[in-house]
Amino acid sequence: MEHGGHTLNLIEEEAERQKIQMKSLVETQRNNLKAKKNIIRQLDEDHAKVAQRGEDLKRDVLKIVDNLIAVIKAKIRNIFSAVKKQTSKSLESLTKRKNKIEEQIAVIESSIEKAEKLLTGSNAEVVQIKKSLQIVFEGIDQTEPVDGDPEGLLVHLTFVENQKLLNIVNTEEIGSLENLHQTKSSQCIVEGKGLQEGTVGGEAQFVLTTRNAQGGQCYNKHDHVTVEIRDERGRECATNVRINDNKNGRYKISYSLKEQGRYKVTVRVNGGHVLGSPFAVKGQLFQVRPVLSFGKQGSSVGMFNGPWGVAVNSRDEIAVTDFSNHRVQVFSSDGKYLSSFGRQGKENGEFDFPRGIAFHKNRNIFIVDNDNSRVQIFSGEGKYISSFGGKGSLDSQLSNPCGLSVDSGGNIIVADAGNKLIKIFSPEGQFLMKIGGQGSFTYPVHCVQCDKYLIVSDCNEHCMKVYDRNGNFQYKFGKQGGGDGEFNYPRCLSVNKSGHLMICDKDNHRIQVFEVNGKFVSKFGTKGSGLGEFESPWSVAVLSNGRIVVSDFQSHQIQMFE
User: Which of 232, 356, 400, 460 is the most exposed place for a label (fewest CB within 10 A)?
Assistant: First the structure.
């Protein structure tokens, strides 16, 4: 019995083991079945997508054809209108000629009728009425009508077909089918420091590479790339998110943070998250470090005697108004001397203490010639073009002009300190409008556009005054002092890549950074003549890579920060 029981246990164990194996096999097949059904479902979805895409393509083709037909019909209407106009002109002339001849016919018929009545009298009466008959026919036009079109009343038109267009229609296709690379969002990757940290007031960057299902880099012009940056409470918190499409499957993405904190950066391609999205990013306070400085006091090339204004162009060349040397010097982005122009004088192309300077998008250079009370315009190579202004208080004139900038419309904004006004001129120097008057400013030294606002640095009142684009006062910020957000004779200002204001706080020997609403963001610089220190920071500009260029008037040098 024990042996039989042992055998029975073995059989049961074996049966249980086989059940487990069979269940595992069944489960494997179930999973296999589920996977195949998923594939069938995906194939059905792909089938529907392909069919829908085919219909979409047909609609796209018909839309193009409809547009072409609409254009052709419009051109037909233009030709028909011209035909109608010319035909009406000829018909009107013909009608006038016809009416004139019909009037002559009526006169002749009436005269003949009168003559015939006179001829019915006796012979003696006929002899007597000859003179009367001559009078009757005197007013009749005796010229004989000429056949044809002697006066050129008919306009002879013909239609000359556009053979070039016909050849294009006959030989060219309306378009072609293109097999686009299929981008797989989950295969796309992003790389760069901007995925880990960003700086308030600075610019963070990273690069997106789009890939196909096999992981190969690909480019599809119809791809839709979106970047969303939100704080821990889900609020959007970045400014100037820019997506630069390199047209090769790589996208350079840059953004700026408004405040310190932790954020999530979500990157999607065609609605799907890229690999690793969303990314946790730490927002740090605005920080800069000095990179280099160039220049020292003197009159030789590359030396300064009070660098006043500073401006940069699209090639990252740095132009500086060398105040007491009465010239402009141009340097490369790493401080290498390139060229200079100007000398002391009152003639065209000469300066008497140049101050504000700005590059225009037309590549010309606009320079405030302070003691000559004018703005001079030069080519990018430093060749004199023209000037405007002149000493006086008229709208078109200037008195002790200081800073200068260019707005988004290409107009020139001049701080007319002597007249206590901000004046705006066209690129050709025509007066357009003014801001201020009746105690609005004490000593305006500079004005720049920031978004929809005009920000004025009022030096002697130690504050910034903000106006809308129509010149209506909005608000001001700052007061005299040495604390954060306070000023001590502020000078020129600039807008950095993130839309923050950078203001030269001259007698506090620093640069302060603000949001456009006047909220203090950060500061850098202390009193001194070493790298990263200032004696009298006067003007500030920003290179394309975000580096900050500052002219330090009293230490006779230019400093650069990043």
Answer: 232
Q: Which of 552, 559, 525 is nearest to 286 (CA)?
A: 525
Give the separation between CA 92 and CA 1, rounded to whole angstroms.
Answer: 133
Q: Which among 145, 171, 206 is the end of a domain?
A: 145
pLDDT at 562: 86
pLDDT digits (tens, 9 = 90+) for 139-162: 666 666 656 566 666 667 788 888
Q: How crowded is the C-beta side of 325, counted as CA atoms within 13 Å?
A: 24
**Which residues form the domain of 92?**
2-145
Which residue do the tokens 């357009």 mark? 432
**In the chain, how many domains are there?**
3
Q: Running DSSP on this structure, what letter comes out for residue 327?
A: E
Report the alpha-carbon angle 399-405-411, nearest 5. Answer: 95
Whether residues 190 and 95 fall in one domain: no
> What contacts 141, CB < 8 A, 6 or more positions away?
104, 107
Using a CB cutoff of 8 Å and minimum separation of 24, what contacts does 138-142 make?
139/107, 140/104, 140/107, 140/108, 140/111, 141/104, 141/107
φ and ψ at 283, to 5 degrees? -95, 120
Asked if residue 237 and residue 356 are part of one domain, the reply reads no
Edge-to-edge strand ranges of the sheet holding 365-369? 354-359, 365-369, 374-378, 384-389
**The domain spanning residue 360 has which CATH number?**
2.120.10.30
Distances from the Cα of 20 to the Cαs of 27, 225, 351, in angstroms? 10, 50, 98
Report, in angstroms and rounded to the nearest whole number, the Rg of the chain calculated over CA atoms.
42
158 part of a folded domain: no
Backbone angles phi, psi at 5, to 5 degrees: -65, -40
Give pTM, 2 decimals. 0.62
CATH of the domain at 203: 2.60.40.10
Tens digit of pLDDT for each residue in 168-182? 878 888 777 665 668
Are the C-beta atoms of residues 51 and 58 closer than 8 Å to each other?
no
The answer to whether residues 540 and 447 belong to one domain is yes
The residue with greater pLDDT, 30 or 402, is 402
pLDDT of residue 480: 97
Report the C-alpha gap between 198 and 202 in whole angstroms. Answer: 7
Could you count the other beta carbons within 10 Å of the beta carbon of residue 467?
20
Q: What order of strands is seen across the sheet that includes strand 453-458?
A: 444-450, 453-458, 463-468, 473-477
The residue with greater pLDDT, 288 or 535, is 535
Residues 448 and 299 reside in one and the same domain: yes
Q: Do residues 258 and 271 make contact, with C-beta atoms less than 8 angstroms apart?
A: no
- The three-point CA angle 227-231-232 to 5° equals 130
Say yes or no: 392 and 244 in one domain: no
* Sign of the alpha-carbon torsion through 488, 555, 372, 377: negative
Same structural domain, 475 and 513: yes
